[in-house]
């Protein structure tokens, strides 16, 4: 047995084990921690499969941002109903084993069918690779996301905004005030922030620019930006506020607006809707998307209408 | 020769991670567990980064790995400090 196969098999075992721990219970908090660990293991699996774009997305969004959002939701839940913090044991269902076996069977059938498929250059993947030079991009994933299936990505941006609005509607009703970070000054946190925040911004911009030709893109960059926002919120430099400034609202819809402009512009020039723009245009639109995604996720974490900077 | 050094460094690093994990699972309270965990983060990760640098053989890779180690070091220092502080505050509150 080769070393590579050994690593893959232990990864598979780890993933299944972690997934079981996520759903088996012993309390919400443990489930969340295991979910974050599962996201990291999943990122490793994607990296082993040679899909760095998905590995980055899973590490940044699946493990990082989702984990932070779930912990924020958990804290809120405990504030509303302290009983939720208690460890619980998931009820045992006699159907569990049967459902698990059926699900495994489904995965096996899909997997075996996919392996059996013959390579056909006429399929979408082949066509993307063939026509990628027209976009000026080097990364086929970015090409698909921003050009070939740009419509889907535009709608994804709208879904993200809708999620934020939905969360606002749900949380606006409960009377628990948004809790700001404790006013206590923690000596080490300030220095960590001073080093980590600039580095985070650097990584986000790097991921964005690199995404044109290599692994990366607006969603990963936006998630990294959101990580900076979460750190600023936790350390009290950003404070939740009950009013969104005009600037903030503008930044929230900037990504969608830039994308729509990119879609409409070719029509004005007599070409089709969403006709392939140049590389520079794509990067500009992605930069706008990165800002909107980062801000939306930060606001989802803070659970407030807006945030404002607090001088330290 | 370089491969042997890399292997030795990686194995030693792996040993520190193993020891740190056992400590995390077996030691009695938060402070002892933090002590075990930070050893794994600092020494284990340093040895593994060093081993990988020797294995990779390029200055660029080595600098990336050094950055990763320094960042992990900072994060683990501050989070260990915060966890210990929180646990002490909890103990004080329970003592009153």
Helix content range of chain A? over 70%
Report strand % of chain A: under 5%
E-strand count of chain A? 2
Count of individual helical segments of chain A: 11
Uncertain stretches of 5 or more adjacent residues of chain B: none
Question: Which percent bin holds the helix content of chain B?
Answer: over 70%
For the report, how would you describe the main beta sheet of chain B?
none
How many structurally independent domains of chain B? Answer: 1
| Rg for CA atoms of chain A | 22 Å
Content of β-strand of chain B: under 5%
- Choose one word for the global shape of chain B: elongated
Features:
heterodimer, A: 312 residues, mainly alpha, 2 domains, 11 helices, B: 96 residues, 0% strand
Mind explaining what this structure looks like?
The complex is a heterodimer of chains A (312) and B (96). By secondary structure, chain A is mainly α. Chain A has two domains: 1-86; 135-312, no CATH class. Helix content of chain A is 71%, strand content 3%. Chain A contains eleven helices and two strands. Chain A has helices at 3-24, 28-48, 52-80, 95-116, 124-131, 140-148, 150-173, 187-210, 218-234, 246-268, 279-302, and strands at 238-241, 306-309. In chain A, strands 1-2 form a two-stranded antiparallel sheet. Chain A starts with a helix and ends with a strand. By secondary structure, chain B is an all-alpha fold. The interface between A and B is small, with 7 and 8 residues.
């Amino acid at each position: 047995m080769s070393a590579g196969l050994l690593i893959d098999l232990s990864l598979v075992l780890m993933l299944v084990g972690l997934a079981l721990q996520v759903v088996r219970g012993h309390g919400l908090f443990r489930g969340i921690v295991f979910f974050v660990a599962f996201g990291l293991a999943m990122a490793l699996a994607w990296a082993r499969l040679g899909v760095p774009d998905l590995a980055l997305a899973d590490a940044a969004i699946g493990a990082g941002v989702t984990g932070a959002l779930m912990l924020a939701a958990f804290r809120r839940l405990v504030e509303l109903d302290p009983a939720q913090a208690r460890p619980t044991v998931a009820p045992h269902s006699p159907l569990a084993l049967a459902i698990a076996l059926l699900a495994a069977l489904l995965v096996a059938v899909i997997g075996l069918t996919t392996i059996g498929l013959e390579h056909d250059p006429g399929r979408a993947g082949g066509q993307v690779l063939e026509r990628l030079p027209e976009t000026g991009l080097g990364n086929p994933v970015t090409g698909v996301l921003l050009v070939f299936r740009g419509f889907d990505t535009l709608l994804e941006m709208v879904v993200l905004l809708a999620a934020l609005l939905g969360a606002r509607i749900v949380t606006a009703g409960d009377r628990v005030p948004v809790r700001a970070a404790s006013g206590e000054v923690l000596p080490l946190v300030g220095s960590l922030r001073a080093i980590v925040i600039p580095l985070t911004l650097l990584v986000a911009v790097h991921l964005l620019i690199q995404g044109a030709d290599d692994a990366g893109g607006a969603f990963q960059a936006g998630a990294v930006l959101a990580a900076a926002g979460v750190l600023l919120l936790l350390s009290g430099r950003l404070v939740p506020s009950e009013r969104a400034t005009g600037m903030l609202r503008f930044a929230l819809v900037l990504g969608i607006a830039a994308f729509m402009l990119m879609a409409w512009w070719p029509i004005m020039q007599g070409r089709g809707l969403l006709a392939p723009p140049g590389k520079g245009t794509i990067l500009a639109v992605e930069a706008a998307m990165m800002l909107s995604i980062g801000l939306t996720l930060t606001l989802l974490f803070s659970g407030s209408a807006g945030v404002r900077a607090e001088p330290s | 020769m370089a491969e042997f050094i890399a292997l030795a460094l990686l194995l030693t690093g792996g040993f520190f991670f193993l020891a740190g994990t056992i400590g995390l699972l077996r030691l009695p309270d938060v402070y002892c567990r933090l002590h075990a965990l930070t050893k794994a983060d600092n020494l284990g990760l340093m040895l593994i980064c060093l081993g990988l640098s020797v294995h990779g053989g390029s200055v660029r890779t080595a600098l990336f790995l050094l950055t990763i180690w320094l960042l992990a070091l900072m994060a683990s220092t501050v989070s260990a400090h915060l966890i210990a502080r929180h646990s002490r505050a909890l103990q004080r509150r329970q003592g009153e």
